[in-house]
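To fix ideas, we close by showing one paired sequence and structure record:
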Amino acid sequence: MKNNKKTILFITSIISFVIIANYFVEPVERDEVGTNLVVSSKEEGYIKSLSIGSLDPVEGINWYGGTDPDHYSLGGVIRNIDIKTVQVFVNEQMHETNMIKINDDMSVWYCIFEYKRKSILEEPDKMKIEAFDEKGTILWEEAFDSILGG
């Protein structure tokens, strides 16, 4: 996905507004299944829905992920107001994330990147998500192995 395209971003179910951003996002949408982060790119016909298990994460931030044939998506809710940036690493390569402020004590974040589908017999990818304050101090991190698309 190219990040230089202008698309529209808005929030549903909590508050509605319009912002110019990289993707068309309906970050907090409730339906009969639960709460979802919906990300799409109008230019490329891409749409991804991530189920969000909690709007009130215990550690101040959470994440959920999913794949399609060409893209991996991560996203979640931030309730720790000290978190100012989130970074996602796959095998030490950093991928851009976006944060959207919903209100004074809630933001959502998401990251979409292309990946090469792997066999489950291959070495797993090393994944890491880090959340930083405005001084660059890590406030939260999670690292895990994953076989993207496997």
Remarks:
- The two ends are 20 Å apart (CA to CA).
- Residues 2 and 95 are 12 Å apart (CA to CA).
- The chain has one domain: 7-146.
- Residues 1-33 have pLDDT under 50 and may be disordered.
